Amino acid sequence: MTLLGALDNFYLTKGEQEQSPSRRDGITAAAERELRHYCADVVAEAAVLLRLPQVVAATAQVLVQRFYCKRSLKKFDPKVVAMAAFWLAAKLEEVIEIDNPNRLTLRDVIRVVDRVTRRREGKSLTVMDPYSQRYDVLKQEAVQTERHMLRAFGFVVHVEHPHRFILNYCQMVLFDTAKHAVSKEHQRAVQQEAWNMANDSLRTSLCVTYRAEAVACGIIFTAARKLKIPLPENPPWWHLFEVEDEQVYDVCATLCELYSRPRPQPGAGAPPPAAAASSQGAPAGGTPQLARLSAEQLHPACCATEATIATAVVAEDALRSLWQLLQHDVAAVRGHLPVASHIGRPMPHLQPGLS
């Protein structure tokens, strides 16, 4: 285990997540999930508008999930947390060039995040005056929230994304043999599908539940099942990376639940304030629309492999078809149906009591 791995203090069990500070303050599980999802969407859209590497958005989304595992949504506004997490992620990913006169500033982050949230709330898209009292209040709140985040994390803020493992793992398990003949087209399809799912997984709590290696294995498993491409299962291929069966199946179930969320209704607006979320319930959700990360932006070691992956965006009908293809396996994971696969081969037996 590396030194940074020994310092990890942000992985929580499902039971610990159910006792989150927001839950203790009376916010329902559905409302907490929707507010976290809303905050992650705002961060992703702000990164696109600011034309920053998408790794900044990915890191900020992880920081948001970690922070709300330690602090309550009732005490920290998701809009301000999105600003603070985005600004902290920009520092961690070193995208702020000190010598560049046009470098990213906190003013840019505040104005863009404010515009994104106002558009989602259906308000007028006026440009915020940086000399107004409203801007001063938001700036002070963002700076204070960033300090709260660092204190909550114990200044352990390193982030490891599953993307860096996906390409390497795919190359290792998608090999050509007489028994498992996987064409180059299928290899690229699995890699691209897994890459897209890794982006969407940042909207869930997987980043605070399992390590990046386990999340990567679960994502590859889900992508291969969707595309009906067989992978070695006797023994399961993820055992090579010291990942347990329960972790892989839980990642798959979490992704299916994410993709099964209903589409947002036109004019639905933003989620209710966290202070009222416990009584109003969760707002209508939507299908993830996160801009796709590139391998070069996330990890330099992936640059050579990125050229072999076709750039594509998962359409909403494909996301719905994923749920239709995998709902039988998800039910099996939850213990309601006999375990069976979509590719005609039995899945490994699940241990009882898997949540």
Automatic annotation (TrEMBL):
Protein's recorded name:
Cyclin-L1-1 isoform A
At the top level, the lineage of the source is Eukaryota
What does the entry give for GO biological process?
A: regulation of transcription by RNA polymerase II
Question: Where does the Cyclin-like domain start and stop, copy by copy?
Answer: 41-151, 164-257
The protein's matches in SMART domains, at most eight in alphabetical order, are given as: CYCLIN
- Cite the record's Low complexity compositional bias ranges: 275-286
> Which residue stretches belong to region Disordered?
264-288
Query: What's one GO MF term for it?
Result: cyclin-dependent protein serine/threonine kinase regulator activity
| Biased composition, class Pro residues, residue ranges | 264-274
InterPro entries in UniProt: Cyclin-like_dom (IPR013763), Cyclin-like_sf (IPR036915), Cyclin/Ssn8 (IPR043198), Cyclin_N (IPR006671)
Provide the species name: Chlorella sorokiniana (Freshwater green alga)
Keyword annotations of the record: Cyclin
Positions the record marks as coiled coil are none
Family under the similarity heading: Belongs to the cyclin family.
